[in-house]
Amino acid sequence: MTEPIISVTDAGISFSTGRRQRSARDLLIRGSRGRRDIDTFWALRDVSFDVAPGETIGLVGANGQGKSTLLKLIAGVLLPDAGRVQVRGGVAPLIEITGGFVGDLSVRENIRLAAGLHGMDKATIDASFDEIVDFAEISEFVHTPYKHLSSGMKVRVAFAVVSRLDEPILLVDEVLAVGDAAFRKKCYGRIEEMLARGTTLFVVSHNEADLRRFCDRGLYLSKGELLLDGPMRDVLDRYRADSGITA
Amino acid sequence: MAATAVLAPVRARVTGLWQARSVFRLLVVRDLRVRYAGSALGWFWSVLDPLLMAAVYWFVFTTIFTRSVGEEPYIVFLIAGLLPWMWFNGAVTDTARALRVDEKLVRSTNVRREVWVLRLVASKGIEFLLSLPVLAVFALIYGTSLHWQVLLMPLAVALQALLLAGLGLLLAPMVVLVRDLERVMRIVLRLWFYVTPVIYGAVDIPDQYAGVFALNPLVGIFSLYRGAFFPGQVEWGYVLSSAVAAVLLLVVGWTVFARLERTVLKEI
Q1: Is the CB of B105 less than 8 angstroms away from the CB of A102?
Q2: Tell me: the pLDDT tens digits for B152-193?
Q3: Which of B136, B50, B56 is nearest to B88 (CA)?
Q4: Mean pLDDT over residues A9-33, rounded?
Q5: Do B44 and B134 contact (CB within 8 A), yes or no?
Q6: Higher pLDDT, A242 or B162
Q7: CB B98 within 8 A of CB B116
Q8: Per the CB < 8 Å rule, is A118 touching B109?
Q9: In this predicted structure, what is the pLDDT of residue A29?
């Protein structure tokens, strides 16, 4: 078997449920000791799986069961508190995609900045700039500040940039739900192109049709634990049975 | 065994940072572009602040008080201290809130987190270098001649950059976790100004306080800057303590940063 492109080993991450931030006064009065581990819950715990290059994986589970957290661990924007998450290859993350864009900068500057932050070099950015603008259908608004775009346009620009990254791993978190039907069709086309090139895919979605269409393998998360790892069809059946949906 | 356990993550961080250099450059260019907005006026604004402060101190200490410290021409002496102070002040303020200001970008891109902090040390440093012609102009006007010790300036710049990197890495994650630290920092910086040889020189520090001032790493660094025009100002004892403090702070700062990184990512 080839070396896995993603190895997740006993990974866990905990969040505190108490107050988000401490003030210097709190630190001085109560001391920094003793407040840790009091109000924490494990968003993911003891999750282990390997992914071979080219696999397509769908994450299934109700809201708040750790699906997006798992994607963020793989994207490297969160770090595990326990276990390891090893990713051998670049990641194109379609998660919170509009987050990487700055409202005050123009669409043009944003495209360059976001592509650069995701690791695209200058020559590639120059070469693919027009294509990104075309794909997002945004050519009249290239000099408009990003904040003045409609929310649909924002997602289009973001999707166009991230999906243009030539990375071996693609993470998709619910972004397929936004945008109008025509654009969604284009997105599907783009994802299929990438799959044809052998891209490893991770999808979080509540849309069964999407999951069946793109994913061979399913991971079922519940309360931060990996309940089932198997063929997509079996995982969806189990999920539906558990949540009491009869199809 | 123990040595490799400590060194492996350090090496991983250093190589990771090196691999992020193109992103680093991208962000520095963005910072400078925002700062100068493609106009000469942008540059003017960045030197206006130190010039106004220089004018005020110059008036106060040449006209109102009789001054026993510093050197002549006092305005050149002041500007040689105020320009690096502006770099220090601006970089500490900005790096401290680096992770918070750019939280959306930090949260959504897998860029080495150190880059968000360190790139501000660089962009503020470039602003400082671009403001140096102002010092040259005043030196020309007042006919102050350049001493060979101007060659020490790169050493001063390097030490200050090292010091700022350490301080920034130390403060940035703490500001995310402790809300009012930013306000505390503002007060500390204002006090720090007066215990730093800006309106006076390192040589003017009374001997009985030398031990206390040696704790301030800026004393030695600022004495190096001054040496370019005022040869008697360089105090090698302070320079040595500055260098030790800068290296120490970088180690402490980076350790704290690495420790707090995962918590910070959850909080932003």
Answers
A1: yes
A2: 999 999 999 999 999 999 999 999 998 889 999 999 999 999
A3: B50
A4: 67
A5: no
A6: B162
A7: yes
A8: yes
A9: 55
DSSP helix/strand/coil, A48: strand
Please give the model's pTM, rounded to 2 decimal places. Answer: 0.88
Q: Rounded to a whole number, what is the distance in Å from the CA of B87 to chain A's nearest CA?
A: 25
Q: Which residues of A touch B181 (CB under 8 A)?
A: 24
Could you give the strand order of the β-sheet that contains A82-87, starting from the edge strand earlier in sequence? A40-51, A6-16, A82-87
Name which of B104, B178, B184 is nearest A22 (Cβ-Cβ): B178
CB contact under 8 A, B266 and A78: yes
Q: H-type helices in chain B, by residue range?
A: 2-19, 21-36, 40-59, 74-96, 98-101, 103-108, 113-141, 153-177, 181-194, 210-213, 218-226, 236-267
Lookup: tokens for B94 = 């900005």
| Lookup result for tokens 């050493």 | B155
Residues 6+ apart with CB under 8 A from A106: A142, A143, A144, A145, A146
Can you tell me the mean pLDDT for B210-233? 91
Rounded CA-CA distance A10/B245 in Å is 40
**Which residues have C-beta within 8 Å of that of residue B93, sequence separation ≥ 6?**
B185, B186, B189
Least confident of A1-10, A35-44, A231-240, B187-196: A35-44
Enclosing H/E stretch for A170: strand A169-173
Tell me the HSE value of A138 on the side-chain side, using a 13 A CA sphere: 33
Contact between A11 and B258 under an 8 Å Cβ cutoff? The reply is no
Residues of A with CB under 8 A from a CB of B: 13, 15-16, 20-25, 27, 75-81, 91, 93, 95-97, 99-100, 102, 113-114, 116-119, 121-122
Number of Cβ within a 10 Å radius of residue A83: 17
Model confidence over B81-112: pLDDT tens digits?
Answer: 999 999 999 999 999 999 998 888 898 888 88
B135 and B61 Cβ atoms separated by less than 8 Å: no
For an interface test with B, the pick among A77, A96, A111, A161 (most B C-beta atoms closer than 10 Å) comes out as A77
Give me the interface pTM, i.e. the ipTM: 0.82
**Is the dihedral angle over the CA atoms A56, A60, A63, A64 positive or is it negative?**
negative
User: A240 to chain B nearest CA, in Å?
Assistant: 31
What is the distance, to the nearest Å, from the Cα of residue B51 to the centroid of all Cα atoms in its chain? 18
Q: Which residues contact B98 (CB under 8 A, 6 or more apart)?
A: B116, B117, B120, B168, B172
Instruction: Look up residue B78 and give its DSSP letter.
Output: H
Q: Which residues in chain B (165-184) have CB-CB distances under 8 A to chain A? A: 176-181, 184
Cβ-contact A16, A40 below 8 angstroms: yes
pLDDT in tens, A82-132: 999 999 988 988 887 777 788 888 899 889 988 988 888 889 999 999 999
In the predicted structure, residue A164 carries a pLDDT above the cut 80: yes
A96: left (phi > 0), else alpha (psi -120 to 50), else beta? Answer: left
Count of all residues that appear for chain A in the document: 247
Asked if residue A31 has pLDDT above 80, the reply is: no
**A94 phi, psi to nearest 5 deg:** -95, 60
